[in-house]
């Protein structure tokens, strides 16, 4: 089996930069790496992603949950499971913890129901390591909106329009998940400089690879 690594955090917490660091680390180590993002990562998932992020009307929270889970079911079977079976390192930008943090803690859906659907859909595939990039939502959103306002940046999405309380609940939700599973979920201070983030990530990986 390969190694399954997920990256989590609020908007603008630097997940893309971390994904690049992780890829570099493993490629240098001679491993084959595949990167995916959620929602997305498959043709079906990318189509559902555009509904999820650009739909301007209200989406019922359960409908939202099931759309994210539909993307996940597909990417698990099409990409994640086969790549792990071939011994590759899979780096996934968001996974089941996003659903628990956003739809569970953020939207207020029943946590046990969300966890249960997460388990069904991921079919026993659990991240070996999860990096949680933690920062106050104000900081992350400012970065994300900075990207949007620059001419090359993507457009604001449904989540970036949510109020600050929503984003605070998401952050707190993530921290609760990390407290419940400290072995798997490693908290990284996303307000730190890139060098200190890289050092911490490298330490975690070195320790994991030695065990
Ligand atoms: P994306 O543009 O990838 O945002 P980011 O750059 O912050 O990762 O959009 C993904 C959005 O979907 C993000 O706001 C978090 C949200 N999301 C959920 O609400 N539940 C989920 O299960 C997943 C995977 C993502």
Secondary structure elements and pairings:
Blueprint: E1 3-9, H1 15-28, E2 33-37, H2 43-54, H3 61-85, E3 89-93, H4 96-106, H5 111-122, E4 129-134, H6 137-149, H7 164-180, E5 185-189, H8 194-210
Parallel strand pairs: 1-3, 1-4, 2-3, 4-5
Helix pairs in contact: 1-8, 2-3, 3-5, 4-5, 4-7
The structure holds thymidine-5'-diphosphate.
Molecular structure report:
The protein has 211 residues and is α/β, with parallel strands linked by helices. The chain has one domain (3-210): 3-Layer(aba) Sandwich (Rossmann fold). 57% of the residues lie in helices and 13% in strands. The protein contains 8 helices and 5 strands, in the order βαβααβααβααβα. The chain has helices at 15-28, 43-54, 61-85, 96-106, 111-122, 137-149, 164-180, 194-210, and strands at 3-9, 33-37, 89-93, 129-134, 185-189. It has a 5-stranded parallel sheet, with helices on both faces. Helix 4 (96-106) runs antiparallel to helix 5. It is globular. The model has no long low-confidence stretch (mean pLDDT 93). Bound molecules: thymidine-5'-diphosphate. Residues 11, 15, 38-39, 53, 68, 94, 98-99, 102-103, 157, 159 line the site of thymidine-5'-diphosphate. Thymidine-5'-diphosphate binds at residues 11, 15, 38-39, 53, 68, 94, 98-99, 102-103, 157, 159.
